[in-house]
Amino acid sequence: MLNIGCHLSSSGGYVNMAKQAIEINANTFQFFTRNPRGFKAKAIDKDDVKEFLQIAKENNFVKILAHAPYTLNPCSADKSIRDLAKEILTDDLKRLELTPNNMYNFHPGSHVGQGIQEGIKYIVEALNETLNKKQTTMILLETMAGKGSEIGSKFEEIRQIIDLIELKDKIGVCLDTCHIYDAGYDIVNDLNGVLNDFDKVIGLSKLKAIHLNDSMNPFNNHKDRHQKIGQGSLGIKTITNVINHPKLRNLPFYLETPNEIDGYAQEIKLLKSLYYL
Ligand code: FE
Ligand code: FE
Ligand code: ZN
Fold first, then answer.
1. N or C terminus: which one in the chain shows less Cβ crowding within 10 Å?
2. How far is the CA of 210 from the centre of ligand 2 (A)?
3. Average pLDDT by consecutive 10-residue portion of the chain (277 residues)?
4. Counting ligands in written order, which one lies closest to the CA of residue 175?
């Protein structure tokens, strides 16, 4: 079965997202834990959470994916921004324990000129200070397009971060199809080669989720602009290969394509028709 969902607005709470997901035949979803361009978080409504957990169970949802705000930068050159990132990570992890055993995706960060090694050192510091043994949430480092000074556009950088994390069983990777193509991994012509590379460098056992997006930009462009499924430089053939690949097909897929809910419903329908039974 294709496990798929899309990014939904969290402003109406968990039950609202779950109902929307069910309506479009999704069995999971992604959402922002707080304002994606700021840091404000709404108080969590315990009744909403309780009802959500019941709905998710009844409808056989697979893991939902929380996404950290874009503005979170654990490897900023500015200490106050790094401290804020730790504060947000700690608070998000605490909040996510209300919906246990799910996943939390974040962008490793931008080193803003200090260099990759300095940046990686700070990312690792933020994670080692905020992860805790008791958490049930799996943290996912997202593969990035390499826009500006983003860290995480090379598998080697992600591997380096994971190597330095103390609680390694709490950390995994979310592969974004738009981002890796933009970063120079040619999944159009050599999906097998890219996955072999991922396996050698990071290990496929660390791969926990896929952000399924087409790309507006040509190969290796480092721009990070998502396109609707089948309408970008990846195209429908590559997307079909990705969702059916034996090493990927059982992972949860999350759409972050430029769509409203109707567009997502159509994409999910299309993807289900392309999934080999
Ligand atoms: Fe992301
Ligand atoms: Fe993404
Ligand atoms: Zn993106």
1. C
2. 8
3. 97 97 98 89 94 98 97 96 97 97 97 96 98 98 97 98 98 98 98 98 98 98 98 98 98 98 98 96
4. 2
